[in-house]
Write a structure and sequence with these properties.
Largest sheet of chain A: 2 strands, antiparallel
Distance between the termini of chain A: 23 Å
Structural class of chain A: mainly alpha
Largest interface: A-B, 62 and 62 residues
Order of helices and strands of chain A: HHHHEEHH
Oligomer: homodimer
DNA sequence: GAATACAGTTAAGCTCGCTTAACTAAAAAG
DNA sequence: CTTTTTAGTTAAGCGAGCTTAACTGTATTC
């Protein structure tokens, strides 16, 4: 890095404001849907990582299998999740987001997205382009990083 | 905007991955400190917005004054917060992050920051510069936006 | 094929966040 | 000076998440 200190400061400043903003946003959104944060987090997780079994849920959230089972059960009953038998292992369950669940997450993302879009709209066209390029760089970097693991 | 669709897609893609990542990170961190998410959120809020009264806490988190009082009380007892009398209004309390509280938040931010820093480190020097510039643009835009309100 | 490990569920019980209701004390309004 | 708001606390009680413990059914292992 050429200017480690400057870059660090930039990163910190941005993350500080952005994380605060998005966390509060999600909190409010979850509340407005009537779901608890743990429930909501499970939907987010499934949206992000795709279908998985019960055991993954308990691992990822560092909760007991019992807790995962109970949380998932509520989400299934509320129609946000579908719990099917895994054909390859009849002990396991295959959890997938239902259409309703997917829409919920999309809606939440949309609201968060809108804030940032409004933010970007205050920039000049060329600055927007810069931002866009930078985000593409970062998003690609994330993908590469996750592939390596 | 020159390319609204493209820009939107970029924004969405980035936010999707970043929000997911940072939310999970904070969740784990909060858990590791022994604090609940609501408690942790209050510390975040104070870190971000500075000292405030009880009423602001209950408003911002959309909880009753009683709930705010109880949550704050725990944080005070744990040494993360200081609750003093407001000299200008003896009914009111002035809540401030303690040194310990500030360090906690810094530590959490640091971990989140580190991930993104590692991410940026995979980029070429010139790409890093692009990212840095873009984030400065965004951070400044946020400041302007908040000032206007 | 019997023993063991694994995936998930169910039940009991705890803690925690939250609410309402009743209360104290100070400020503002009349 | 009295009345009414405002800021916050305390107590009782409810619901949610989580844990441990006991259990069912299915794979694996030897």
């Amino acid at each position: 890095m050429t200017k480690p200190t400057q870059f660090s400061k930039t990163l910190r400043a941005w993350m500080d404001v952005f994380m605060h903003r998005s966390m509060r946003g999600w909190g409010h959104f979850a509340k407005s849907t009537g779901l608890s944060m743990p429930q909501f987090s499970i939907l987010m997780q499934l949206h992000h990582k795709g279908p998985c079994g019960m055991s993954e849920v308990s691992e990822r959230f560092d909760i007991s299998a019992a807790a995962a089972s109970q949380l998932v059960d509520k989400l299934v009953q509320a129609g946000y999740l579908e719990r099917a038998e895994d054909p390859t292992d009849r002990r396991a369950r295959l959890l997938t987001l239902s259409v309703k669940g997917g829409e919920l997450i999309s809606q939440g993302t949309e609201e968060r997205y809108r804030w940032m879009n409004d933010l970007a709209a205050t920039l000049s066209v060329e600055d927007q382009k810069k931002v866009s390029e930078a985000l593409i760089l970062l998003t690609n970097a994330v993908q590469k990083m996750e592939e390596k693991k």
